[in-house]
Amino acid sequence: MAIYLVQGLLSIVTLIKRRDDFIRYTADITMLYFLSYLCAGSFDLSLSLYAVFLIAGIGKLQKISLGGIITGILICLYAGVGIMYQDAYMTLATVVTRYTYIIIYICMIFSEKIKRTKKVSADDYRYMVRSGLLTEMLIVIVVWMKDGIGARVVTNHQPIGGGIVLGISLVVGICYRQHLFRAGEMLLYDGISMILIILSGTRGYMIIFAMIMAVTMIVYFMDIPDHGNRMLQRIGVIFFVAAIVILWICIFDHGKTFELILRLDESLGYRENENLYVKELMKRIPWYRKWFGWGFGRSAAGTKEALTAAGLASWNRRYMFGKLLQRTIFHNYWYTILFKQGISGLIVMILFYARMVKRICQDIKDRWIRYFLLMMAVGTVILLTFRITATCSILEMLLVAYFIRQMEEDNGEGEKENAE
């Protein structure tokens, strides 16, 4: 409890000190969350504090769209039913870990404070990147001191390494595109980030990082910020390096290191039992359960449909039978939504991401920044199929919404200047 008290007190101090500097405030709050998570070995309460202080930093909202209102009402409705008539703790845990990123995104998109935020300098973004990378490196050192050098970066069997890097990779790419970071600086930050992502051992993280890095590298090798002045030179270097890597993997290493790093020799484990359980359950439950789910605070245990589904799903791991009956949150985020809110919940999520993609495509004029944000949005959808991130996608979605707002303001100022 002392750890959470320290996190809360330091977060209050940060809120007061950084009230007019949202990027540095977000960096500090994120750093405090991860250090608290590392020390406590559990993220339930530390993540709740993180979310509360982020919302406090976002501040008052302006007029919210109809879609945002409907999404918020549905979350509040399910949460209210869960707290009053189901398991209150399970409901709150579900809201914090599975739905807060949606709330944060909506708050960021409609925040008055973000709309009138001061022009952010390169040093502000640099502070976020450096503090995040230093925090990640500290986490690796602490975990390796405890579990041995080379151990997967986890705490209490939960992945903690690489959680900040996903958001940082987006910041680095966009800052390089906007001439806020030099090429060498970008390569240094992304090189360290890549090492940290690999050490995290989480394949979902690697996917989203690779998607953003792909755009960053295209921008770099085509030398887009400087109109292609060094394009041929950089493309030549990448072909040379790629040839060496391919030779090493195919001839000398036979792909063993590649397979080990990406954990390609490992199966999904009991996740396949979870996935099969939800599929079999959905085949058997009444129509109203299929459409509206079981709610935020209830398991399916005690129903004949659940008993049958658990029996079929645990065919190769009998010990999973009892666990599946009590399971309400699954590694696959979309199966969690299907279980808790049914088909209607999936429809709401599809509309949520469709609206996000539409806003990115319509409001972001720079196509490369548009690609960065699309990669983060699409990458998050793919990532959530494997597992949710260490920040439960809060940091990633916060930054997507933040850059959408920043680009909107920049476009508005540019149009105003042209009109004058």
TrEMBL record:
> Source organism's superkingdom?
Bacteria
Keyword list, A-Z: Membrane, Transmembrane, Transmembrane helix
Q: Mark the transmembrane ranges.
A: 34-57, 64-83, 89-107, 127-145, 157-176, 235-255, 333-353, 373-404
This protein is called Lipid A core-O-antigen ligase and related enzymes
